[in-house]
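#struct-help
A.M.: can someone run this one for me? Single chain, 612 residues.
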Amino acid sequence: MKEQPTLKLRILFTGVLFLFIIGTLNAQQQHKTPYQHRIGEITQKYFKLLYGYNKQLTVYDRMQLDMITDGEEASGFILGVGILGYAANHSETDTKRLLSQIKIELKQAERLKTAVDFKREANKKLEAARKKLEAARNRIQDQFEKTDAGKIQAEIRDNYYKWLSKGEFEKNADYEIRKEKLSKETFFEICNSTIKNRIKDISNYDLKTELLPYDSENEVFSISFSLNDLNKWQNTLKIPIKDAENFKNEWDVKWEQNLSDWCLIDNYLYPTKITLSNTKNESQYRFVLPLSNQKNIIVAFNGLGLENVYTKDVVFDFSTGSVKKSKQEIKDSLDNAFYDNKIDSVFNAYNREILNNHFNIDKETLSIDNKPIIDKENPDKNESFDLAFEKLKNTCNEFSEELENKFNLKRDSIYLQYSEYFPNRLEFNTLYEEGGNVAVQKAAEITRKENMYSKYSEYFPNKSEFNILYIQGENIVIQKVENLKKRDKMYVQYSELFPIKAEFDSVYEQGESVVIERVQDLKTLKTLGECVKKIQSINFMKVDEYGIQELIKNCKDRKIYPEALKIVFDNNKGISKIWEKEGMYFYNQSEFYESYTSGDYKKILKEKKKKI
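D.P.: on it. Structure tokens below:
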């Protein structure tokens, strides 16, 4: 019985909640423009299609869908995710057709836009621009905080904030007296000690020095310096030529560090004066930092973001070790500490972005002339930081556009040069954007090589042979091909003598003269082969009426001589029979044949037998 009221309360609460939801939905619908209504209808239509939601949407469903797709970005995101799922289960053609249909309906919906919609869009753009500007400022501030100047400022702010805070056991009257009497002095001490401690940290790094070759004409040594590898510079030292060699031999120096002569360059600490002591002879050499853009180390209280009436407009200058108080000095110092340092950070940050710009293939940067300049004589004429920042940003954007235009012009020029190797322009653009001219040249070279191989592949069944020749130069490949063409032409002329082309190729590799010689040999052997019947009938001890003996005699100093004799011995029974019977007395078949056909065979044979 005790659950009954609880159930009624739940039903009542659910009903009230439902009415609240309906009211909220109606309120949302009433504030929507016709354009927004249409976008909502398109979203619901394609949401059901893309997510396979086949049922009729309830009021609650529509409310939820309106909430999660409120705005074009959210609507586009929800539909985008749905399209990815749709593409995974449908053909590319179907997906493109659906995308085209959605774009058409969204484009048609834009006709419904009113002044309210345009105002909302303008406000969105303004908000996006504001966020972008704020992000840029934050990024610049982050970069500034990583520099020496940024770290000094942060430490001073933290330490001075602690001093400004009222102590737990400090009376209000004592607190006010402390601030009134000691604020400036304490600010001075904190600035001075913080900067010196930072300099000590920097001084822990070695100052790298290198004595460069002696300039005998001007009688000076140049000395190269670098600190923390951020910047390098050179100074000269006048040394008479008579002392130069000894000076060089005894050059062994160390840096005599001090805490007073320092400056900022691009918000990093550098010594304005450098003293080097020679460890061998105790000589000292003093140099002045020659780098430009040196700035005094200045800390403006107003730039710390703290409140204290006693140090308002106070600026500490480390170079003088004092607090500036005059209005003019305050204005100048504020410009240097806040304006100039910030502009330096912005300028350097933009140059880093430009160096990393995808289109900056020549690694160009903004000129120092593009940086806003402080008018120290007339500080009131200096622009506000926001205005200077905006101008510098526009300069950077224009420079980036110029880089892109130069990039595109150069890309198009290079494409004309290599277009024969890139029938697909999109493929060329992608390659050029990823690797520049070097990548294009490499790809073109590969394509050129492959094209050449395709053209002459019939002459190179083994591609490695082609690759070896190509490395030596295209002219070497062409010479090889021309030689092979000449070989094949020659083979056609003598193919009947070389039934196996590989045999001809092997002979040709030894030279054309060898081919001619081999052709003559083969023709001789062919002639002998065609005279077999005559050879069979000849008596080689008598005069040869067919000229066979003369033909064989002409082969005597040629490689085919043994082959020619073999034809004779294989086909003439008379000489073959005598060879079998009396060949043992002769060194070889050639000696026997020449004795047998000499006309003095019996005499020669008798002499041979005597020697045995």
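A.M.: thanks! The longest strand covers residues 220-227.
D.P.: also worth noting: The chain has 22 helices and eleven strands.
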